[in-house]
Each structure stands twice: as C-alpha cells, then as structure tokens.
C-alpha cells in the first residue's frame, strides 16, 4: 500500500513536457538512445540505433517524433511514422523507438509519450498502430501490453554467412583476369 502511494507520488511530482522534437534535439535523443538500445536490446541489423536512424525518422515525419523534457533536459522520446500500403484503405502507424532515461523509468513517462503519439496518429487518420521489440525485452512487452497492444506475432531472424561465397567469387574473378 505504502509502496503504491510512493509510486504514484513520484509520478505526480514530475514536471514534464511532451513536445515535438526539434533539430537541436537530434544529438541529445541519439545519445540517450545509445544508453538504452544496447546490443542486448537490439541484437539484429534490421534495426540499428545510429545517427542515420534518428535523422532519417526526423526527416521523414518530424511531427511523429516526440520528446519528453524535464527542466530543459530530454529524458525520453517516441519516434515513429505512418505507412500507407497499396491495396489497403487503412493507414498504419509504426512506433519505431520508445525510450526513457533509466533513472526516470516507471514514473509514467513512456505512457505520457505514448498517449501523445497515439493522439497524433489518430489525428492523422491512422487506423492501426504497430510496434515490435525483442521477445526477451520484458519491460517493453509489459509496457506495450499495459497500453493496449495485443495479438503478438512471432518473427524469426535467420542469417547466412556469405564469406565463403565472397572468397569463391573473388578467386573466380582473379582467375578470369589471368
Ligand atoms: C519500455 C520503456 C520505454 C518504459 O518506459 P517507462 O517510462 O518506464 O514506462 P511507464 O512508467 O510509463 O510504465 C507504464 C506501465 O508499463 C508497465 N511497465 C513499464 N516498465 C515495466 C517494467 N520494467 N516491468 C514491468 N512492467 C513495466 C507497467 O505496467 C507500468 O505501470 P506501473 O509503473 O504503474 O506498474 C523503458 O523501460 C525503456 O526505455 N526501455 C529501454 C528501451 C526499450 O526497450 N524500448 C522499447 C522498444 S523500442
């Protein structure tokens, strides 16, 4: 009971602003993400947290890039975009990256970011919102379930090492030149 009260008081104490990301925020968001998206969390190359990722999302749909700011410090972000698929009347939204500075986690900040993000999506005609995360990222899975996501579908990553083929092709080319 006492624990619950402390938890809620902590949430209320935070003086937070959720706003659109600006160009000057790019580096801050990138560095915060570097701390959050470690190799453990994003172990595949399909999505990599790098400068290009932040810049390209900002360039594509700046209105869907939000930050959470407290006393002029960025402590969280939600970056996404909308997708229209050919043959489908539905517009989709995708939340690519959601992160909150570790020491401010479990204080309702991601929930606030997500609420603003979701409202933006609705205002922009999105009918279905999607997210993806690693199967062992339990905090994220708990969070996404808590805010209403369901129907998880598994996606398997496979990899093929092309080094041997690369060597064979190189050899073939060299032999061809002789
Ligand atoms: C996932 C993440 C964004 C959640 O941010 P947060 O600000 O701590 O989330 P909130 O405080 O708004 O949590 C809302 C609810 O989600 C659930 N939740 C969030 N984190 C949880 C955790 N670690 N364990 C269990 N439930 C959790 C809880 O139900 C929580 O409500 P409660 O605190 O009243 O119990 C944060 O853990 C994070 O930045 N993780 C690293 C980056 C990442 O993995 N991002 C997601 C994939 S892109």
Concise summary:
This protein is an alpha+beta fold and about 180 residues long. The protein has helices at about 1-15, 25-35, 50-60, 110-125, 140-145, 165-175, and strands at about 15-20, 65-70, 75-85, 90-100, 125-130.
Provide mean pLDDT, rounded: 89
Number of helices: 6
CATH-scheme architecture = 3-Layer(aba) Sandwich
Structural class: alpha+beta
| End-to-end separation | 81 Å
Helix-strand string: HEHHEEEHEHH
**Rg for CA atoms:** 20 Å
The unique ligands bound to this protein are: coenzyme A
Q: What is the topology, as strand order, of the major beta sheet? A: 1-2-3-4-5
Oligomer: single chain
In total, how many domains does the architecture comprise? 1
For the biggest sheet, the summary is: 5 strands, mixed
Keywords for this structure?
178 residues; five-stranded mixed beta sheet; binds coenzyme A; elongated; alpha+beta
């Amino acid at each position: 009971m006492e624990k619950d009260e402390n938890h809620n008081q902590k949430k209320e104490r935070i003086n937070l602003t959720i706003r659109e990301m600006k160009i000057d925020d790019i580096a801050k968001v990138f560095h915060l993400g570097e701390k959050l998206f470690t190799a453990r969390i994003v172990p595949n190359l399909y999505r990599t947290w790098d400068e290009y990722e932040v810049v390209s999302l900002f360039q594509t749909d700046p209105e869907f890039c939000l930050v959470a700011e407290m006393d002029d410090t960025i402590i969280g972000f939600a970056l996404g975009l909308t997708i229209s698929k050919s043959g489908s009347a539905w517009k989709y939204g995708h939340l690519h990256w959601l992160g909150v500075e570790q020491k401010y986690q479990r204080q309702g900040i991601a929930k606030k970011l997500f609420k603003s993000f979701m409202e933006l999506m609705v205002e922009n005609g999105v009918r279905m919102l999607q997210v993806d995360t690693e199967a062992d990222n339990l905090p994220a899975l708990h969070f996404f379930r808590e805010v209403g996501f369901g129907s998880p579908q598994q996606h398997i990553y496979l990899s093929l090492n092309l080094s041997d083929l690369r060597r064979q092709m190189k050899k073939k080319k060299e032999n061809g030149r002789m």
